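Propose amino acids for all 237 sites.
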């Protein structure tokens, strides 16, 4: 009988320790997330409970932060996870073209697909909340599930999504019909120089070709419409 009582008492104490440990662990995670969100938004004034104007998203890869703008005024910041070095998040100027429940459990509860032509990329929740704030994804933008659900309820299809971060090198000749992250780099450069007026979506179409030809013409180069060596040197790419 004393042996049974000793074991019962010990089991009760162990159970209490386990409960306390779990409480501290999950409480610590909640506190960290709360403090991180507060730090991200300490300077943001949001008198409305939800954005009411024209919305735009900006994702800053270096900072692992997603920013929501309402009529060009910063409304809220979210901590996110972005692509690993081997599978980077594509830099460019995109739009949300699809909204729905997440296509798989590992992508959390919401999915907002982007119009990136060379792969399936989106903003979504995650079953691995501990990865938030790191370079961990296959190129998508991960959010905490509660954050993805909040954003999903606010942003409509068509919302612009500008992804800012490291730009890949152009290691091939670009011409009409090519597509990829390197085309985005070319388009962003032509935008900065005032030759290209569209959003940089990484598809080399007639507008990109026309912009490149105009740049070549203004710099007394043959109007090849491709990224030959002399053109690349003048573009400083």
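Proposal:
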């Amino acid at each position: 009988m004393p042996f049974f009582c000793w074991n019962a008492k010990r089991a009760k104490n162990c159970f209490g320790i386990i409960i306390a440990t779990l409480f501290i662990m999950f409480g610590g995670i909640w506190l960290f997330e709360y403090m991180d969100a507060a730090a991200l938004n300490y300077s943001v004034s949001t008198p409305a409970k939800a954005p009411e104007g024209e919305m735009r998203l900006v994702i800053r890869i270096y900072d692992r932060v997603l920013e929501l703008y309402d009529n060009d005024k910063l409304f809220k910041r979210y901590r996110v996870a972005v692509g690993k070095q081997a599978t980077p998040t594509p830099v460019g100027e995109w739009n949300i073209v699809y909204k729905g429940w997440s296509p798989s459990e590992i992508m959390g509860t919401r999915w907002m697909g982007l119009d990136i032509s060379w792969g399936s990329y989106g903003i979504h929740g995650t079953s691995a909340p501990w990865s938030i704030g790191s370079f961990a994804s296959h190129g998508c933008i991960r959010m905490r599930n509660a954050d993805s659900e909040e954003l999903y309820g606010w942003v409509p299809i068509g919302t612009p999504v500008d992804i800012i971060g490291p730009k890949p090198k152009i290691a091939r000749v670009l011409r009409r019909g090519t597509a990829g992250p390197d085309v985005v780099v070319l388009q962003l450069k032509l935008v900065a120089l005032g030759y290209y007026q569209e959003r940089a979506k990484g598809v080399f179409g007639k507008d990109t070709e026309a912009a490149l030809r105009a740049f070549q013409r203004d710099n007394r180069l043959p109007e090849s419409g491709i990224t030959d060596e002399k053109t690349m040197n003048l573009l400083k790419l």
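The chain has five helices and ten strands. The mean pLDDT is 86.
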